[in-house]
């Protein structure tokens, strides 16, 4: 499952980031690391961008970026 598939209020644990290059490196620098808990807090109209909470701060991501973040949804 990818991060963009979560609904507002749902959370998951990051398992991996797909791809290579500067986009993935940027996501890792922003705190999206394997083992981190991430929660969707808001979505813009149309679903892009979305706001996530990771490591006690809010982060806005494009759907394209969120699709690179593989997660396991929390029960």
Summarize the structure in short.
This protein has 75 residues and is an alpha+beta fold.
Q: Could you describe the 3D structure shown?
A:
With 75 residues, this protein is an alpha+beta fold. It has a single domain, classed as Roll (SH3 type barrels), CATH 2.30.30. The chain contains two helices and five strands; from the N terminus they run βαβββαβ. It has a five-stranded antiparallel sheet with strand order 4-3-2-1-5. The protein is globular, with a radius of gyration of 11 Å.
Q: How many distinct beta strands?
A: 5
Helix content: 10-25%
Taken as a percent bin, the fraction of beta residues is 35-45%
Main sheet: strands, sense, barrel = 5 strands, antiparallel
Q: Indicate the low-confidence ranges by residue numbers.
A: none
Just give the CATH class. Mainly Beta
Structural key phrases:
75 residues; alpha+beta; SH3 type barrels; five-stranded antiparallel beta sheet; 5 strands; 16% helix; globular
Topology (elements, then pairings):
Blueprint: E1 11-17, H1 22-29, E2 37-43, E3 50-54, E4 57-61, H2 63-66, E5 69-73
Antiparallel strand pairs: 1-2, 1-5, 2-3, 3-4
């Amino acid at each position: 499952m990818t991060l963009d598939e979560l609904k507002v209020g749902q959370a998951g644990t990051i398992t991996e980031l797909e791809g290579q290059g500067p986009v993935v490196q940027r996501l890792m620098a922003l705190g999206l690391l394997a083992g981190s808990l991430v929660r969707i807090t808001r979505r813009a109209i149309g679903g892009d961008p979305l706001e996530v909470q990771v490591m006690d701060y809010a982060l806005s991501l494009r759907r394209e970026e969120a699709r690179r973040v593989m997660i396991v949804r929390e029960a």
